[in-house]
Amino acid sequence: MAKDPWPPSAGCSGRLPVRLQRDRSSGPVAAAGAGRCTDQRDAAVVCGLHLVCALGICPPVAARALGAAGDAGIAADRLWPALVCRGGGMSRHPSLTQSMSGLHTWAGLVLGWLLFAIFLTGTLAVFDRELNWWMQPELQDRQVDQASAVQVAQRWLEANHPAASAWNIGLPTARDPSLSVSAGEQRRGQRTLIDAESGEQITPRETAGGSFFFRFHYTLHMPRVIGIWVVGFAAMAMLVAIISGIIIHKKIFKDFFTFRPGKGQRSWLDGHNASAVLLLPFHLMITYSGLVIFFLIYMPAATDALYNGDRDALLRELRPGAQQQQGAARGGEGGRPSREVPAASAAMQPLEQFIALGEAHYGAGMLSSLSVSQPGRVNARVEVRPLLGSRLELTKGEALAFNAITGELLRAPPPTRTSLLVQKVMAGLHFAQFGGYPMRWLYFICGLVSSAMIASGLVLYTVKRRRQSAAQGVWLRQVEWLNLACVGGLMLACVALLWANRLLPADLAEREGWELRVFFGAWLAALLHARLRAPLRGWLEQLAASAVLLLGVPLLDLQTALAVPDRIRLGVDLTGFGLGALLALAAWKVSKRPAATVRAARRAPAVMAEVQS
User: Fold this and answer.
1) pLDDT at 138
2) What is the 3-state secondary structure of 263-328?
3) Are 236 and 294 a contacting pair, CB within 8 Å?
4) Cα–Cα distance between 564 and 75 in angstroms, integer?
5) What are phi and psi of 384, to 5 degrees?
6) Helix (H) or strand (E) holding 77
7) 208 with 513: CB under 8 angstroms?
8) pTM of the predicted protein model
9) What tens digit of pLDDT does each residue of 87-101 get?
10) Quick one: average pLDDT of 136-157?
11) CA angle at residue 543 from 437 to 501, to 5 degrees?
12) What are the tens digits of pLDDT across the range 382-416?
């Protein structure tokens, strides 16, 4: 029998709580003495109870602390420093891992609420065009190809704006089957929607649409520049949390395969770690690329030094063809409308011919719009623009220019300079415009998992601290209700926006503003609810409310739609129903939380306070 390395001191019985005692067995652990634990970390602490006695800590207090720690699921090695410090010795400087652990905790906590809002709205913005379509039920998918649609648009423009200096046609696409037209210098938001078959004008309801989630994602509904800076600061905090998380995960490969269901806090921690490790490349890419998109705002020193702060001069040098394209589109040089006498009339080639020419360059179904400058004149030009997702590089502002009379190619997009190409590729990776629906669904799922990772990290902070210390009760209560308001409240507000879109009168004045009032009003109500309710009850009620509203989205669509739901609206309905089922499962899990765990969590802070007093 090996000699016990930690003999009991005078007045210390050396007995352990029954919960922490283990059966004797052969082997090095059993040979070390009674009360040994099969887990190496807990064994080190349990074996040190006799040393605790020698340091002057009351044996009953130490025993009660370890017993409560076991009941509440607290790792024993977290209790050991508190016991030793109570004895007044064995202090040491924090290691790199401990320092990074603190940095990871506070970077994730302080800006975790903002990061959750950014990730959740960014995830919804993956399907922003589909949400726009769902929120305007007056629009119908006529299943018309682009060549046929452009003929309808041309007839409408010739009948209503024959003498306009420019025509602009928004083509129906797989994500947005609407056909829009405008004349002259009208901007995209001022376009008229027409039926792709009959050519009749359509007036859909005003709505914030899915575009609201896209704008909120990078501005947080603040003034644009201020919002971009706030989101950029949060993105830097996300990078700090990612890098510090990599450092503290010494067994990062093991965490990838480790998940222990039904273990309470341990299961949530396993899920948090596994989701972080599994999506680590996605997190690094989406965070860094988001910063690169606004590099001129975040790092303006080069522009200030080389171009005296003139961003337009920088962009002209990076994209030498862009200024010519804009000038031609406006019918003049340098972007100024031409004041010359209009040129002689001439018959143009059918516009559907330019659809074929554009698809020959970009690919079938890869066109987004077509514009005609000086229509019906000998100097008429046609520009064909691709979808943003025609390739990995973001193609915003790119166009093919043709002579509208002869069909001759006048200008093709020049090769992108390397420096600008890097930025465009990073932006393309972030916006996920390439790869079609399979890539879009991959980004959507990754965004949902990332949002759940951030939310679980916020909740784990409060659960862990609540069990370990009673001294931070006021602070932890503030964090608990903020967690609920920012996570549960934002989800509830997003669903409330969908319901407001269908329930508010279609002809209501300033309807878009009223939708936003419902969104922020629901979020404010959730915040007040979180402040007044107990944390567990609050989570249950808000998750259940969001689940019920999401499960009811298909029924809402059927009751308020003006026609049978098409493939896009049906996809939104089914996705909402699936997300509602997931939230209902989460609410059910919260309602089934074992009462014993709750009691242990309430008892642990008092015991820890006794140890530290």
Assistant:
1) 92
2) CCHHHHHHHHHHHHHHCHHHHHHHHHHHHHHCHHHHCCHHHHHHHCCCHHHHHHHHCHHHHHHHHH
3) no
4) 57
5) -110, 125
6) helix 76-87
7) no
8) 0.77
9) 444 446 777 777 777
10) 92
11) 60
12) 999 998 876 788 877 788 999 999 999 999 888 88
